[in-house]
């Protein structure tokens, strides 16, 4: 695995652990080589308060991971037949209530000029 890919996978894993979405790490084959890092991480040793619903934690994680992940969440929110209702309702918030990400303002100014 390339260092850049490994670095991004570790970053994704860190965000998922931060929001208490550990079951995604344990269930996904991409993270199988990195499970040792999950078990060795001090974040998994301490009790984390899982504030918020499962859908809210997923939405916040997607927002933190960046625009590609937010687009993925937007796409999933349109497929209510594939998701539990609580997750679909939270991901629907990605349609029109997304905070701007860095670089958006500069592109808008250049496009307006």
Q: Would you kindly provide a brief summary of this structure?
A:
The protein is mainly α and 113 residues long. It has helices at residues 3-18, 22-27, 35-40, 42-45, 54-65, 67-77, 85-92, 104-112.
Task: Explain the overall architecture.
It is a single chain. The protein is mostly helical and 113 residues long. It folds into two domains: 1-49, no CATH class; 52-113, no CATH class. 64% of the residues lie in helices and 0% in strands. The chain has helices at 3-18, 22-27, 35-40, 42-45, 54-65, 67-77, 85-92, 104-112. The longest helix is centred in the first third of the chain and has 16 residues, at 3-18. It starts with a helix and ends with a helix. The model has no long low-confidence stretch (mean pLDDT 79).
């Amino acid at each position: 695995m390339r260092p850049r890919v490994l670095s991004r996978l570790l970053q994704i894993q860190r965000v998922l652990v931060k929001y208490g979405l550990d079951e995604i790490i344990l269930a996904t084959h991409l993270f199988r080589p990195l499970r040792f890092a999950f078990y060795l991480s001090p974040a998994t040793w301490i009790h984390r308060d899982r504030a918020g619903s499962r859908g809210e934690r997923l939405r916040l994680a997607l927002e933190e991971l960046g625009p590609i992940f937010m687009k993925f969440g937007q796409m999933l929110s349109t497929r209510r037949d594939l998701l539990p209702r609580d997750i679909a309702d939270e991901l629907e918030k990605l349609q029109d209530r997304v905070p701007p990400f860095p670089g958006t303002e500069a592109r808008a100014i250049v496009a307006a000029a």
